């Protein structure tokens, strides 16, 4: 048994033990679904960032950076990160006031509509089930690299870990294990990065070395990145539009914004969002710098999605490599547990909506759903369907495309009615679905502002307006809307706002820090290497 196998099994054992311990504290349905609504800043920020990053951040995004598009990713992530603040301030804190257990339940309460609740539940299940499947497979592939076990064995190991603590401890367990996993992969990556930077000649010399390296991808260090045969405008606009897409996704999707239903108070929403912004900008830049540093050591990799995995095996001491790879695995397990819990809770509470006299009965029923959903995901993962990538295309942003408009309008529009909201969701879903098929399968040039996401958002908003035309809101809708805008007395404590200001100033200072870093260690060395002085 090698050290990588020990690392995998030991980390899984820790997560299982934590899940069992936390699960013993689950007393009622609120504990199981929304962690008793007492989650603190560190747990909310931990679960949001861990589920956002996943194995795709460590494998897919680093490959994109390695191939020459680190600047595209920096632009995309900076815009995306704004969703943590915009979503929290203009949506998240209001849905918390509804005291709903799931986001489809919030829409049901807001519009007094069972059909909206069920359709929102179906959208959530369709989207996040595909996410769950892709993350489960990605985690298994990583475990194969680490352990040498068969893919089937690794799928079973990953499934066992995920389903056990999710089934037993619900949201409480997911929050705690997600946060532990998040801290673990943050620390492991930061430590491992030093070995990669040192092997590539030092981070202070990285830009100069890459400029003089004939193997550096075209445009890697320029403001636009590798255009891959397209125009500079195309690649810049791609980063900008994708950033907006993911900003809206972060702001309103149940696996991100839904975490706001669990917070102890509204101030935590802003503070956790601030941490989410800092991690999205600083940590991901650090990760991408690790990826492009490998160009100095191992250029032109045939499988660039394994750039960090290769570095873990070849560049750093074995113990550090074990820590890094088990950290990446933790990111995958974290995302999978989040998706499994959200899908299962929506299926049980919003789609099936069975009534129980006791909380314990509903918890047990939800646990059964968790088990069934996980079994289905495991079975599909074993089939290794070639269409999984196609499914993932549709899953990526379909939730935000379907109800992005409805989410914000539910808080801010006094004209949106039940009929308008329902038509808006239907239109957003099917416009995205159809146009995505046309783009991915029939190569219809739907890019930039004509991306299926933007077409769906526009169609959704249009249908929302026309569907509400000459319609009147019911008394229940009006009362619920007005109550959303009443600040609870518990949220008016002055000392809490003073703490919020500290987080706000931290964001401002962080902006100056990241800008200064990029100017000193990127812009100046890059221009000097090209023989250009930016001070003349």
Outline of the structure:
With 536 residues, the protein is mainly alpha-helical.
Radius of gyration: 23 Å
CA-CA gap between termini:
61 Å
Which architecture of the largest domain per CATH? Up-down Bundle
- The helix-strand sequence is HHHHHHHHHHHHHHHHHH
What does this molecule look like?
The protein is an all-alpha fold. The chain has 2 domains: 3-386, Sodium/glucose cotransporter (Up-down Bundle), CATH 1.20.1730.10; 397-492, no CATH class. It contains 18 helices and no strands. It has helices at residues 3-23, 29-34, 41-97, 103-111, 114-147, 151-199, 206-211, 232-252, 266-293, 307-314, 318-352, 359-383, 388-395, 398-412, 418-442, 452-468, 475-484, 494-529. α3 (41-97) packs across α8. It is globular, with a radius of gyration of 23 Å. The model has no long low-confidence stretch (mean pLDDT 92).
């Amino acid at each position: 048994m090698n050290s990588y196998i020990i690392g995998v099994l030991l980390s899984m054992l820790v997560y299982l033990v934590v899940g069992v311990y936390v699960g013993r504290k689950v007393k009622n349905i609120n504990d199981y679904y929304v962690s008793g609504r007492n989650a603190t800043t560190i747990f909310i920020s931990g679960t949001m960032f861990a589920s956002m990053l996943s194995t795709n951040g460590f494998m897919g995004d680093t490959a994109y950076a390695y191939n020459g598009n680190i600047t595209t990713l920096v632009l995309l992530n900076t815009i995306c990160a704004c969703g943590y603040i915009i979503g929290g301030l203009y949506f998240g804190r209001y849905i918390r006031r509804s005291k709903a257990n799931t986001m489809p339940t919030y829409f049901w309460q807001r519009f007094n509509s069972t059909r909206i609740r069920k359709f929102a539940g179906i959208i959530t299940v369709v989207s996040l089930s595909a996410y769950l499947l892709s993350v489960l497979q990605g985690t298994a592939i990583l475990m194969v690299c680490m352990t040498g076990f068969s893919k089937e064995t690794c799928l079973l190991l990953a499934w066992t870990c995920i389903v056990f603590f999710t089934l037993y401890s619900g949201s409480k367990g997911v929050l705690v294990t997600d946060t532990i996993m998040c801290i673990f992969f943050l620390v492991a990556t930061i430590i491992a990065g030093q070995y990669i930077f040192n092997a590539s000649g030092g981070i202070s010399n990285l830009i100069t070395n890459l400029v003089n390296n004939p193997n550096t991808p075209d445009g890697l260090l320029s403001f636009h990145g590798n255009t891959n045969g397209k125009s500079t405008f195309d690649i810049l606009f791609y980063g900008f539009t994708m950033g907006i897409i993911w900003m809206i996704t972060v702001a309103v999707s149940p696996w991100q914004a839904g975490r706001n239903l669990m917070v102890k108070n509204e101030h935590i929403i802003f503070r956790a969002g601030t941490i989410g912004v800092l991690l999205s900008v600083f940590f991901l830049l650090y990760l991408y710098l690790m990826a492009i540093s490998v160009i100095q050591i191992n250029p032109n990799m045939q499988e660039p999605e394994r750039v960090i995995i290769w570095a873990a095996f070849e560049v750093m001491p074995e113990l550090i490599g074990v820590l890094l790879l088990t950290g990446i695995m933790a990111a995958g397990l974290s995302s999978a547990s989040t998706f499994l819990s959200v899908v299962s809770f929506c299926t049980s509470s919003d789609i099936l909506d069975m009534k129980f006299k006791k909380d314990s009965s509903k918890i047990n029923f939800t646990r059964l759903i968790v088990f069934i959903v996980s079994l289905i995901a495991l079975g599909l993962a074993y089939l290794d369907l070639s269409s999984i990538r196609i499914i993932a295309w549709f899953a990526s942003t379909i939730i935000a495309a379907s109800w992005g408009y409805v989410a914000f309008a539910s808080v801010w529009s006094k004209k949106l009615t039940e009929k308008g909201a329902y038509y808006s969701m239907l239109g957003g879903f099917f416009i995205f679905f159809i146009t995505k098929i046309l783009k991915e399968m029939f190569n219809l040039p739907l890019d930039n502002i004509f991306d299926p996401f933007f077409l769906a958002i526009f169609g959704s908003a249009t249908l929302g307006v026309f569907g509400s035309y000459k319609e009147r809101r019911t008394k229940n809708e009006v009362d619920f809307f007005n109550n959303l805008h009443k600040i609870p007395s518990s949220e008016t404590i002055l000392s809490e706002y003073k703490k919020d200001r500290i987080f706000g100033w931290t964001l401002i200072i962080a902006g100056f820090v990241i800008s200064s870093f990029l100017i000193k260690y990127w812009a100046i060395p890059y221009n000097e290497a090209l023989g250009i002085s930016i001070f003349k």
